[in-house]
Amino acid sequence: MIILQTGTYRMGNLLCCAQVDQSTVAIKETFGKFDDVLEPGCHFLPWCLGSQIAGYLSLRLQQLDVRCETKTKDNVFVNVVASIQYRALADKASDAFYRLSNTRTQIQAYVFDVIRATVPKLNLDDAFEQKNEIAKAVEDELEKAMSAYGYEIVQTLIVDIEPDEHVKRAMNEINAAARLRVAANEKAEAEKIIQIKRAEGDAESKYLAGLGIARQRQAIVDGLRDSVLGFSVNVPGTTAKDVLDMVLVTQYFDTMKEIGATSKSSAVFIPHGPGAVRDVAEQIRDGLLQASAHQQPNLL
User: Fold this and answer.
1) Which of 107, 165, 162, 169 is nearest to 138 (CA)?
2) Are 155 and 139 contacting, i.e. CB atoms less than 8 angstroms apart?
3) CA distance linking residue 205 with residue 130, whole number of Å
4) pTM value?
5) Rounded to the nearest 5°, which phi and psi values hold at 20?
6) Which ranges of 119-263 would DSSP assign to H, the alpha helix?
7) For the segment 110-139, what is each residue's pLDDT rounded down to a tens digit?
8) Phi, then psi, of 53 in degrees rounded to 5
9) What share of the chain is helix, strand, coil (3-state, %, to 5)?
10) Residue 69 host element (H or E)
């Protein structure tokens, strides 16, 4: 960047002296020809001998942000924003002052050229992942080109890659769909575990219930056996059949009592009398005798 301090130069021209600020150099000409580069400070310029200040050149670090539109290998248009940090070299101040008329435009042209030659070789995802490689390619090209004009490229950064708004929305939807799919799989896996645990619990419950029923029936059988034996001993002339019939009648009345005591019973009653218990017992006994009679001829 060339800085012209015309007001200071005119006042200094009357006194044949010129002031150069810090981090700045001045280009001295004699009769329109380059003569010297003046360092910061006060310098004597005999204008009567044709000496004059042609202009000032800043040596400070400068930054240029370049926005370049291009497309990726998968035909997605993106805006690549590059930030270029550069400065003029004091030992090449004459080249920086005379050889370039517009430094920023020249740098921008080189950035466009490199980005539009590099990004189209990459897919969109690769362009995001290889930002540093793109920046390195731009910096190398600029360093090679601008060093001949007296400028140093300090650093090049790819600060942003902006795809089209529709593309960004589609990418977000793809990402959201993938996350929903993972969430659905995790939810299904959790439900599967719950069902397995519930089935294992149900199986264990039924197993324990079966053990309880078996023990209950064993206790009932043991109690009936003891009752029959005790009654037969204490009451002479009674048979095991009589005792068993009495026990069945007792259980029948106990069952009827429990059903009647329940306010919300769902039992269905079939008309019958207490003598049906004896009939049931006789039917069971007759069935066993008939089965034994049919098996004996087969054995013969």
Assistant:
1) 107
2) yes
3) 61
4) 0.52
5) -115, 125
6) 124-129, 131-146, 165-234, 240-261
7) 999 999 999 999 988 888 888 899 999 999
8) -90, 120
9) 60, 20, 15
10) strand 62-71
